[in-house]
Write a structure and sequence with these properties.
The protein is of the alpha+beta class. It is built from three helices and six strands, in the order H-H-E-E-H-E-E-E-E. The protein has a six-stranded antiparallel beta sheet with strand order 1-2-4-5-6-3.
Length: 138
């Protein structure tokens, strides 16, 4: 499915949880999507770093969007499984996620993502993720 940035932004706005988190796509090309989230107090856990669930959700939805860019017309992408490795606590002003398709398929697509925390203009890798996306009829 060919997706331009404005269409992809519409998909993210139509996903209530992503809209509530404040996730915004910033770039798209076939098999690759970049997203951003402005960190707010509601995203943090009691220690002050971003909650792992926020990071995992950001990576998952961004990987799914990357797979959607290569899905055939008439198919939607749903997560079959994913794994997130948290490398360090995330603090700063923003999270940025870069996701890409490793191998597109007719039934399953394999994806990866990296999540960075941005603080004072400096990016720091905070998580890596991998996901298997199932393609289903729309």
């Amino acid at each position: 499915m060919k997706l331009d940035l404005e269409t992809l932004r519409g998909f993210f706005r139509a996903a209530p949880f992503m809209a509530d988190l404040g996730v915004e796509p910033t770039a798209v090309e076939p098999g690759r999507v970049h997203t951003r989230l402005d960190i707010a107090p509601r995203h943090r856990q009691h220690t002050g770093v971003v909650h792992a669930g926020v990071i995992a959700a950001l990576a998952d939805h961004t990987m799914g969007a990357a797979a959607q860019t290569q899905a055939p017309e008439g198919c939607w992408v749903l997560t079959a499984e994913f794994k997130t490795s948290l490398l360090r606590g995330a603090a700063g002003e923003q999270l940025e996620c870069e996701a890409w398709v490793l191998k597109p398929g007719r039934q399953l697509s394999f994806t990866e993502a990296e999540v960075y925390a941005v603080a004072g203009g400096e990016r720091r890798l905070v998580a890596k993720a991998s996901g298997t996306m199932a393609l289903t009829a729309a």
